[in-house]
UniProtKB/TrEMBL annotation:
Stretch list, region Disordered: 338-357
UniProt biased composition (Pro residues): 340-352
The organism's taxonomic lineage, starting at the top: Eukaryota, Metazoa, Chordata, Craniata, Vertebrata
Record protein name field: Diphthine methyltransferase
Gene3D superfamilies in the cross-refs: YVTN repeat-like/Quinoprotein amine dehydrogenase
First and last residues of every WD repeat: 227-260
Enzyme class name: hydrolase
Keyword annotations of the record: Hydrolase, Repeat, WD repeat
Organism: Denticeps clupeoides
Chain's gene name: DPH7
Subunit field text: Interacts with INCA1.
InterPro entries in the cross-refs: Diphthine_MTase (IPR052415), WD40/YVTN_repeat-like_dom_sf (IPR015943), WD40_repeat_dom_sf (IPR036322), WD40_rpt (IPR001680)
GO molecular function annotation: diphthine methylesterase activity
Amino acid sequence: MARRSRTRSLQVFDTELSADAAEWCPVPPWHHVLACGTYQLQQGPHQAPEESTAPSRIGRLYLFHFRQEGLRPPLTEVQRMETPAILDLKWCHMPISGQPLLGMATASGEVQLYALRDSQDGGCVLDPWSGTKLGPDRLALSLDWSTGRGDSNSVRVVSSDSAGCVNVLGLGEASLTTESQWKAHDFEAWISAFSYWDTQLVYSGGDDCKLKGWDLRMGPSHPTFTSKRHSMGVCSIHSSPHREHVLATGSYDEQVLLWDGRKMKGPLSETPLGGGIWRLKWHPSYEHLLLAACMHNDFHILHCREAMEGSEGPCPIIASYILHNSLAYGADWSHLSLDSPPPSSPQEPPKPQGHQMEATGHLKIQYESPTASFDTLLEDEAGRYIPEPDLPSATAKPADPGLDSPSVSCLLASCSFYDHMLHVWRWDWSPQDMK
């Protein structure tokens, strides 16, 4: 059966500085909150690029609110703050003292935590909560929380840095402290992550082309395994929150590898994606779906069921988002459901289709996977998405997975580096087609 799958751009936002991290809040009822981080090298006004003086690294953290309401753009900026350059962002998967926490890995060598709270105007805002410096002369490159399956016992953060170290940080009463630090890789340790099923297990990947495992109960003197299966630097790792022992890794070698954590001599599958795999994200509820940010080759969604069940061969790409024009770095799934039609604003009722097409607008390409065909969307003069109005209820028909109308719509965010763009988009698909 042919798989029906379509990606559509909802809104594009210029972050001004190079964007490299986009993260939806996983904690209810804040699923509509999106954070985006940026990283920018800043030369002095009279400094030539070849001069030895190190340039400063600046960043900016954005906070957005997503709401589908009539014809208004769904994404609204609610906060921005100047920070050191940001290399990674991750939300804690559960509230701490009733508040969502956002972790930030920065070029100043710090892991900083921010607490999300409701603001007086009915929105939300991030406040500094705690932080710690990993050490001198290093960049914090990645972070992960131990709470991937909602385990509140001994909440910890793992972070990797440019000195090749892995750092395990403990969360105390409004404090973040270093529990252990060790030299894990010969060069930059691009990525570190917990096993969400046993948070005493930590994985790390480095520019030395090695993927390593660590058991915190045994101490960091020796890794539990070292894999050289990737031929270039390992820069993405994500433990499946749905299936015990399943691990996804990605590398500058443009390969996504799926692993059984009990058998690390060889991967379950190897999938070439044509670009360095900077980030990998398992879908929060569909266990077989894996989102990949592929640097020079856009964003792709893989279907991994057959690989998990022991079939040989690469995981098929079932959808792609190709509207970015620069390095694909940050990407994340939202927990929000788009299955219900967006509510109409009482102040701005939807206009008939004919009236909408008469308004000033520009057609924008959208990609339809996997047939490589293209469709178009309407944008206004400011480049904002003009959604298609809903059909009157009297003529609406229920979705049928066997027809052209997909039965599930997922909300995603992605960002790209040199063009400093954040995209919010949807993916329409039918789970029945994937069986």
